[in-house]
Write a structure and sequence with these properties.
Elements: E1 34-38, E2 42-45, H1 46-59, E3 65-68, E4 74-78, E5 91-99, E6 104-109, H2 113-125, E7 131-135
Antiparallel strand pairs: 1-6, 1-7, 2-5, 3-6, 4-5
Length: about 140
């Protein structure tokens, strides 16, 4: 299972930071006719993105086309269990993506609206945030 992670980064570890405000861009459908939009801010891990991707492709039986519009570029570190305080920051445990409200996370095209809606509902169940199904206005 090859999960998403950057090939190389400028710095190995990052501060935790806060996610506030709305998505600066990526709030409209650019590729497909249907999409999954985030409604609340949260970190989405590469495992969660992969699980959602699998749910969509499995339901659509590889029909149509799918785009993933988020990429996990934030390293999240964690200290091992039962380790005393101090002695520096822990090692990188996983990669995550900071998702702001309004962000389009997945898009699909070439399938019926009912199939797209069901696939996105299944994908939303795999993600830690409230999501909304959106469609292109023609």
């Amino acid at each position: 299972m090859n999960m998403l992670s950057p090939k190389k980064t400028k710095y190995r570890k990052q501060f935790k930071g806060r996610i506030h405000g709305f998505s600066k861009g990526n709030y409209a459908l650019n590729y497909g006719s249907y999409g999954l939009k985030a409604i609340e801010p949260e970190r989405v891990t590469s495992r969660q993105i992969e699980a959602a991707r699998k749910a969509i492709t499995r339901y659509l039986k590889r029909a149509g086309r799918m785009w993933i519009r988020i990429f996990p570029d934030v390293p999240v570190s964690k200290k091992p269990a039962e380790v005393r305080m101090g002695k520096g920051k822990g090692s990188i445990e996983y990669w995550a993506c900071r998702v702001k409200p309004g962000r389009i996370m997945f898009e699909v095209d070439g399938v019926s609206i009912n199939d797209a809606k069901k696939a996105m509902t299944l994908a939303a169940a795999k993600l830690p945030i409230k999501c909304k199904f959106v469609e292109r206005n023609i």
